[in-house]
Amino acid sequence: xxxxxxxxxxxxxxxxxxxNRILNGLDIKKIYITSHNNxxxxxxxxxxxxxxxxxxxxxKHIIGDWYMHFWKNTHIIAIFKDKIFEFDYxxxxxxxxxxxxxxxxxxxxxxxDFPIKGLQY
Length: 121
Known about the structure:
The chain has helices at residues 52-59, 96-104, and strands at 8-13, 27-33, 44-50, 68-72, 75-80, 83-88. Helices cover 14% and strands 31% of the residues. The chain is an alpha+beta fold. The N and C termini lie far apart (36 Å). It has one domain (8-111). Strands 2-3-1-4-5-6 form a six-stranded antiparallel β-sheet, covered by helices on one side. The protein has two helices and six strands, in the order βββαβββα.
């Protein structure tokens, strides 16, 4: 059995997945459920440690215009449905392609900030 290096940290919103069972195999560090009273507005968020291989697999399970991002120091991997971008958080010149793609999906600017911090609650 091959041991995967789970060197990336990320936050997964369960509602972005086509099958939430993929969470069973991940190294989950924290869980946070938003406090919206309306169940349809409530998000289940998981802070995870993952490998590059797991990130690639997750990209196959994203629905609609959702995305996830994962980071190791300032290196970011942002994944959309079947699309992956890698860039440097501190070098905004490396963000062009991911921002253009996110905007093409109609994502609001404030959601294209790719923070490199874990769940804060």
